[in-house]
Amino acid sequence: MTTLSLTAVAAACAASLVEAKQHDDKSASCKEDANKAIVVLNKANAVVGDRRKCAMAASFYDGLIEGGLAKSTAANYLSVFRDAVKTGKPVKEWNPSRKSAKAKSAKGKKEFADKLATVYRDADFAGFLEDLQNGWDNAHFKTLMEGIKSYLEASGVEL
After folding, report:
1. Model's pTM, two decimal places?
2. Fewer CB atoms inside 10 A, N or C side of the chain?
3. Is pLDDT at 101 greater than 60 in this prediction?
4. Is the pLDDT of residue 154 over 80?
């Protein structure tokens, strides 16, 4: 290669990095807008429920799916959105699996954590947790273990 063509390659590299920076800036701006909307919902005392029963949750989830996100990713984002609207705190990480990937290096029962992570990524997990919370709040069971056992037995799982 000649010096001229190497210079062109270097310039193309710089152009790619400038474009990446612009996308990063746009990404940060979009996430900031989302956090502003979350604050509005929080101040309005909005409650984001189960996407199968709550129009707001369904609208958020469906918008993600229509935008091309995978169902499991949309379900994870919905969980993050639900918590953010409840607390009013800005979202720093929309993908909770990134946090759990970092946590995998921590000491602990990795095998159980891997199993729990698999369940956590399942789109139905958020609905299960909401049902479990409702059962707890309405005193349908005395312990969380009892609630989980009841769910499994109702689903036909022998324990």
Report:
1. 0.57
2. C
3. no
4. no
Residue 108 lies in a domain: no
Looking at residue 81, what is its pLDDT?
Answer: 95
- Domain limits for position 65: 3-93
Q: Which of 150, 148, 84, 86 is nearest to 119 (CA)?
A: 148
Query: With helix as H, strand as E and coil as C, how does 69-121 read?
Result: CCHHHHHHHHHHHHHHHHHCCCCCCCCHHHHHHHHCCCCCCHHHHHHHHHHHH
Count other Cβ atoms within 10 Å, centred on residue 96. 16
AA identity, residue 12 = A
As for how many domains the chain has, the answer is 1
Query: Domain for residue 78, yes or no?
Result: yes
How many Cα neighbours within 13 Å face the side chain of 119?
10
50 belongs to a structural domain? yes
